[in-house]
Write a structure and sequence with these properties.
The structure is a single chain. The chain has two domains: 62 residues; 202 residues, f41 fragment of flagellin, N-terminal domain (Up-down Bundle), CATH 1.20.1330.10. 68% of the residues lie in helices and 6% in strands. The chain is built from six helices and six strands; from the N terminus they run αααββββββααα. It has a two-stranded antiparallel sheet with strand order 1-2. Strands 3-4 form a two-stranded antiparallel sheet. Strands 5-6 form a two-stranded parallel ribbon. The radius of gyration is 40 Å and the shape is rod-shaped.
Length: 288
């Protein structure tokens, strides 16, 4: 190799190699610090695009799970109130059956009628007062629709769930005295007439019980579907997160090995650069 004062190619090549190693070492430090393999778009453009789509699916699925959990809470609140309504109806039925007994006096029947009226008032209170986040559940006005998936493209009608809750107010169930139920208290002429009214009321209560049971059955079906959806979303999030991790997460053991190699190269490069810078000094020996 020719000796030159103006250009020291050995030194330039050593500097170029050190700059390249320094850049790679900086990226390695960044990966180790963040734990991520993708710290900029230039690290892996294709991988970044895939990771972005997977992240959107993961976040959408997490929101969908919250929607499903809220829906489960709605059905549980409604079902609890319906259970209380059903209990009141069962109690009313028992009272009317006892009112038809031959040993019940008019005073007893009046007491039974008063208790029944209290149960009817409680049923109405439940129907009007059962709410979830400010929305009334048991007046027939509740209507909900929400997504069961992450909201990505290719959605179908099966990816949405819509459900309603029928009214269970006293009016809807025809449980008002004089409007569905006959009074067995004051004004009833005989025990025979009272028994007739009582059995007629029992039949009406049986219809109301069937209506409430039907509503609860529909809510139970919704709950079962929501539980299945929640299980599926949990599995989807876990699998998608694992796939995204393989793309974005840095392999720490590999990065540490790379860092060690690059640090050694840096040290060797510095030593070689020092030697290369001594090359032009040989020209001085020729001038002596």
């Amino acid at each position: 190799m020719a000796l030159s004062i103006n250009t020291n190619m050995s030194s330039l090549l050593a500097i170029q190699s050190m700059n390249r190693n320094s850049s790679e070492l900086s990226k390695t430090f960044q990966r180790l610090t963040t734990g991520s393999r993708l710290n900029s778009a230039g690290d892996d453009p294709a991988g970044l695009a895939i990771s972005t789509r997977l992240t959107a699916k993961i976040r959408g699925s997490n929101v969908a799970m919250r929607n499903v959990q809220d829906a489960v809470s709605v059905t549980q609140v409604a079902d609890s109130a319906l259970q209380s309504t059903q209990d009141s109806l069962q109690k009313m039925r028992d009272l009317y059956v006892s009112a038809a007994g031959p040993g019940v006096s008019s005073t007893d029947r009046q007491g039974i009628q008063t208790e029944v009226q209290g149960l009817i008032s409680e049923m109405q209170r439940l129907a009007l007062g059962t709410t979830f986040n400010g929305r009334t559940l048991l007046t027939g006005s509740y209507n909900a629709k929400f997504m069961l998936t992450a909201g990505t493209s290719g959605m179908t009608s099966f990816d949405n769930l819509r459900f309603t809750i029928s009214a269970v107010s006293v009016q809807a169930l025809s449980m008002s005295i004089g409007a569905g139920l006959g009074s067995i208290g004051a004004g009833v002429a005989s025990q025979v007439q009272a028994a007739s009214y009582a059995w007629s009321n029992v039949k009406q209560i049986d219809k109301a019980l069937n209506s409430v049971s039907s509503i609860r059955a529909r809510l139970g079906a919704v709950q079962n579907r929501l539980s299945s959806v929640l299980t599926g979303l949990n599995s989807l999030v876990a699998a998608t997160t694992e796939a995204n991790s393989r793309i974005t997460d840095a392999d720490i053991s590999s990065e540490v090995a790379s860092m060690t190699s690059q640090q050694i190269k840096q040290q060797v490069g510095a030593a070689i650069l020092a030697q290369a810078n001594q090359g032009p000094a040989a020209i001085l020996t020729l001038l002596k």
